[in-house]
Write a structure and sequence with these properties.
Helices cover 1% and strands 50% of the residues. The protein is mainly β and 687 residues long. Strands 1, 4, 8, 9, 10, 14, 15, 17 and 18 form a 9-stranded mixed β-sheet that branches. A hairpin with a 2-residue loop joins strand 52 and strand 53. The two termini are 50 Å apart.
Length: 687
């Protein structure tokens, strides 16, 4: 069998990291693979991919844009040309192994096939990679969109070099032979394993129908690939937290439990194509989160997991147990399962005999059945509310039931619900003399209110939609500081972050709103003097840019006083956040305190309202604002009431502008802070 060698060159290494492992800083690079193709007509499969946790990648790809042609694959074709008409057609059959090389040297990419140059072109900007780099062999991409780009064939050997190899060096490369320079990662498969012989990528996982035989990695083009990565440094992070562990992947729904001075944060996550695990982080103050990693995985044969919550056993004094519920899709339907713990850190699944299934007297047999939230049950035990599909004649919108021991559940008839359609139960708590439920529907969180645990529930009269757009799945969080609220925020690049905790605010009319939690003051680190620009006295609609460039990678907080327009005037007072050259987003407030958020040009023109938020309360003419800003996410408060969480069109640059109303100085007395850089639980905070 002849050999095809693919080589991609990129520079990869920096000095040793503090933990003794070599730190990766990927600049110029070379990836090399010897490939035998099973099918010349296959499209978009990759022999070798370098991808990071932000899903940016460079790869050796066959036939994605033009059938039978090798190309330098990249995220959204950022480093891949449209016109590949001059590229030679691959003609090697299944008995031939081809060596292909793609070299990244600065802004020049050169592709080689065996000993000859195959293509060469310039790119706008090379992609660098760091310690979160992962190598995929046999797959182009894995991430929140799933697994994409399987290759059918066999890989005899694959290598990564930390320099851009020249044509002579590439021509001399042979499998199972030493080279100068040495690769920094190498997979030979000669010993029947997927181990990186250089010890750089220390964790390797074979996926799907992958097999190693005869010194080759065999790929079926449907499910098979090899994933190789380095252990991730678990993060300690504040303001907007996301997990960094490769075993965790991307988070989604979150929930918390507080005990003995520790905040336990749990989150549904996916390290692959579907939600496949529950992971966690902990905190001693509820502000900075120390990532712990995966605690539960989906069972064998399960399509995906669903979210849950955690509660103390009703008989805790005797059994010392905590319970967690989660759902799993097995076959045609979703049902609920349980795990138990005695320390909230280590969890053990309960057996299938505890499986909680749909009661078909009141609920559709194959309908939703997910995520129990509990409250105390008069007389002992717990009531539970969960996402379900009640039969139409019940008038219900969610599930309702009870347990005596905390683990064995009985369904009851669903409460009647008025003013809202189907959706998902976030959480319910008794606050004062009413029961408030946070309910997810149509991509927003709304408030339902009841006088009794068994309902009926009604849509709140005011502030019904309390979160929307770039946020979802709010949960109550009983703590030592009262009932708090947690939720996640979604950036426009689809990364999901755990947002700062919020306080619950119930006014005299019984209206529920979210507020600034006083413990978040711990986010304030070094003060940053606010530098007013020379055109700070601006005209209506124009932007007076501040002189600062704030540290938005770490995160910043700004506070100040704002004079709102008179009632009936246009929303002309607010803040502008720059997101690129001549473009950004604005938060404008009108005389009724209604916020208008959306994209705006850097000269104050072209404002496009994406969200209009009315918290249905009086702020007065003089209000105090608070802005939290990190990466591409912001939160905006008036008089410590959350107006909205918003995902910017792109990452903030650190430049902020003031938009005054009527040419008057309506925003003043501003203060700003950089988020605290500190140590949490003995670990450096990661931003």
């Amino acid at each position: 069998m002849k050999t095809i060698v693919l080589v991609l060159t990129v520079g990869l290494f920096a000095p040793l990291a503090a933990n003794g492992e070599r730190a990766l800083t990927i600049r110029d690079k070379t990836l090399v693979a010897w490939v035998g193709l099973a099918d010349l007509s296959q499209r978009g499969g990759s022999a070798l991919t370098l991808i990071d946790d932000q899903e940016r990648f460079d790869a050796i790809v066959l036939g994605e844009r033009a059938p039978g042609k090798w190309m330098a694959g990249s995220d959204f074709f950022r480093r891949t040309p449209d016109d590949q008409s001059a590229y030679p057609q691959e003609a090697a059959d299944g008995t031939t192994t081809v060596k292909v090389a793609i070299v990244y040297a600065g802004d020049i990419i050169t592709i080689y096939r065996d000993t000859k140059q195959y293509a060469r072109y310039a790119i706008d900007k090379p992609q660098s990679f760091n310690d979160d780099a992962t190598v995929l062999i046999g797959l182009r991409y894995v991430g929140h969109m799933g697994e994409i780009g399987f290759l059918a064939g066999a890989i005899e050997e694959a290598r990564v070099y930390d320099t851009a190899l020249d044509a002579e060096t590439i021509a001399a490369l042979k499998p199972n032979s030493d080279s100068i320079p040495k690769p920094i990662a190498q997979w030979t498969f000669e010993d029947g394993t997927a181990v990186d012989a250089m010890g750089t990528f220390t964790k390797s996982t074979l996926h799907g129908a992958t097999r190693i035989a005869g010194g080759k990695l065999h790929l079926d083009g449907k499910t098979a690939y090899l994933e190789c990565f380095r252990p991730r440094k678990l993060a300690v992070e504040g303001m907007f937290f996301r997990p960094h562990s490769r075993d965790t992947g991307r988070m989604w729904d979150t929930w918390l439990f507080f005990r003995d001075g520790t905040y336990y944060l749990y989150y549904l996550a996916n390290a692959g194509a579907r939600w496949d695990n529950i992971s966690m982080a902990t905190s001693t103050n509820g502000v900075y989160w120390h990532e712990r990693g995966r605690i539960l995985s989906k069972a064998e044969g399960v399509t995906w997991m669903g979210t849950g919550s955690t509660w103390k056993s009703p008989h805790f004094e005797n059994d010392g147990k905590f319970f967690m519920n989660f759902s799993e899709w097995r076959g045609p339907r979703q049902t609920i399962f349980f795990a138990e713990s005695t320390d909230l850190l280590h969890w053990t699944r309960l057996g299938d005999e505890y499986e909680f299934k749909q009661d078909t007297r009141w609920y559709e047999p194959n309908g939703r059945w997910d995520c129990i939230w509990t409250i105390p049950r008069p007389g002992g035990g717990l009531y539970g509310y969960w996402t379900a599909t009640p039969k139409p004649e019940t008038g219900g919108r969610f599930g309702f039931g009870e347990t005596i021991d905390g683990a064995r559940w009985t369904a009851l008839p669903p409460p009647k619900v008025h003013g809202v359609g189907g959706g998902e139960v976030g959480a319910i708590e008794k606050i004062g003399d009413k029961y408030f439920m946070m309910f997810g529907t149509k991509g927003m969180m709304v408030t339902l209110v009841a006088e009794r645990p068994e309902g009926p529930f009604h849509a709140a009269e005011k502030n019904f939609k309390f979160l929307s757009g770039h946020t979802y799945f709010a949960r109550f969080f009983p703590s030592a500081d009262g009932v708090l609220v947690n939720h996640h925020s979604i950036a426009r690049d689809r990364w999901v972050y755990f947002s700062p905790l919020k306080s619950t605010v119930i006014d005299d009319d019984g209206t529920f709103r979210l507020g600034w939690w006083k413990a978040n003051e711990a986010l304030k680190g070094d003060p940053v003097p606010v530098q007013l620009a020379t055109n700070e006295e601006s005209k209506t609609g124009t932007i007076a840019m501040l002189g600062n460039t704030f540290d938005v990678d770490t995160g910043m907080i700004m506070e100040g006083n704002v004079t709102l327009p008179a009632t009936g005037q246009i929303p002309s007072v607010g803040l502008y956040v720059e997101c690129g050259k001549g473009q950004g987003a604005a938060v404008l407030i009108d005389g009724k305190g209604v916020a208008h958020l959306g994209k705006m040009n850097g000269d104050g023109t072209g404002f496009v309202v994406e969200k209009q938020i009315d918290r249905e309360m009086q702020f007065g003419r003089a209000a105090r604002f608070r802005l939290l800003l990190k990466h591409s996410l912001l939160e905006f408060y008036l008089n410590d009431i959350l107006i909205e969480c918003f995902s910017l069109p792109d990452a903030a640059t650190g430049r902020i502008g003031l938009i005054h109303g009527g040419g008057k100085k309506t925003i003043k007395d501003m203060k700003a802070w950089r988020q605290t850089r500190t140590k949490a639980n003995g670990t450096d905070v990661v931003f």
